[in-house]
Amino acid sequence: MASSTLKAVRGTRDLLPDQTPLWNRVEATARAVFARYGFGEIRTPVFESTELFARGVGEETDIVSKEMFTWEDRARAASEKAQNLTLRPENTAGVVRAYIEHKLGETGALQKLFYIGPQFRRERPQRGRYRQFWQIGAEVIGPQSSGAESALRDAEILEMLATMLDELGIRGWKLELNSVGNADDRTCYNAALREALQPVKHLMCEDNQRRADLNPLRVLDSKDENDQEIINNLPKIADYLGEESRVHFEQVRAALDACGVPYTINPRLVRGLDYYTRTTFEFTVTTGLGTQNALLGGGRYDGLSEMLGGPRAPGIGFAIGEDRLILTLQAQAEADAAAEGKTLEAPKLDAYVAPLGTAQNPAALKLAHDLRAAGLTVEVGDGSFKLRKSFDNADKVARAIVLVGEDEVANDVFTVKNFAQGEQVKIARAELSTKLR
């Protein structure tokens, strides 16, 4: 009996060579912007102790209770204990764990860290959402004396994100902003929400009924359409902010106004993780993502280090769903091409070097080597191909074909055809790289 064909696991995918150039451009732009703002890269393990996420993200969150890939790492010896491990569903907890473990706070300096890598959640795969998905994120964290708690850090992160989206060419982004206050503010607000939800929670979906008792703040984050009218009538967090939280939020807004970064206050924006305090934010887009239009989000987490057993270390960070960012860029490019009556095409190589006979293969490879050394992108053919096949192959992948025959090698002058212009010319080896460029 024939075996079935193996395929990628549901919720995962392969990124093929015609797709990865856009991913590389996005990541290169992110790295360049982060460098200008003084961020350094951190790479944490893709799996961590399950306890890290239970304590940091929150045991009652959907992520921890429903979506994590967790397993027991069995003891290898009698002296060892079995350990529960989890593929990371998000990266902030891991970064803060590394901050604590490596005693980065003892330097007294503000730590500005970024990461790019895969995360894992067992959720229903859909457009732009996968079980293995990629995030670009950054965290600013440090001891109180480093200024990590300053509203200036919140505004700087948001201004940096606006800069990065602009440099990537993302159009129509919108920044939504809110403050969820400090721990005391949230305690008062949760009590008010719980009281307001008691008489109406039975009318809500099962998830929101559970949240109404365990963590009513999460009800505000619900996307259930049938519950929106009830949610819109619940108390607003702004009415429960203490003076300290109110002043902090006003300072964030003043700095954004000074930088010319537009934003909208969204009183329902609470984000989905337990560690958030004070500033929370999301960037949304109008193209490519449909109704679930959040592109990235984040917020302040002044108590997360203590939740993980570390010293006081205020922080703020964000995560960009890179899969969703790519979808947005592709949708914009398709819309632009359609408006111009064009179709999207993959970028082509500078040249295709075609040997005229197998005897010219070495000379063709040497020429390709020299052109590549000059910074050009080049494919080299095989002399066993017929001339028509060489032209067909070249036209698919390159802007020009360079013919390498006996006469060309002997005279160091090569026949070059530019496909777009349709012209065929002779070019000396010394000028070839300049002309092809």
UniProtKB/TrEMBL annotation:
Subcellular location(s) per record: Cytoplasm
Residues covered by the Aminoacyl-transfer RNA synthetases class-II family profile domain: 1-355
Top-level taxon in the UniProt lineage: Bacteria
PROSITE patterns in the record: AA_TRNA_LIGASE_II
Protein family: Belongs to the class-II aminoacyl-tRNA synthetase family.
Matching NCBIfam families: hisS
Leader sequence segment: none
Reactions catalysed: tRNA(His) + L-histidine + ATP = L-histidyl-tRNA(His) + AMP + diphosphate + H(+)
Protein name: Histidine--tRNA ligase
Gene label: hisS
Gene Ontology molecular functions: histidine-tRNA ligase activity
Key words of the record: Aminoacyl-tRNA synthetase, ATP-binding, Cytoplasm, Ligase, Nucleotide-binding, Protein biosynthesis
EC number(s) recorded for this UniProt protein: 6.1.1.21
SUPFAM superfamilies: Class II aaRS ABD-related, Class II aaRS and biotin synthetases
Complex formation: Homodimer.
Chief localization: cytoplasm
Species in which this protein is naturally found: Granulicella cerasi
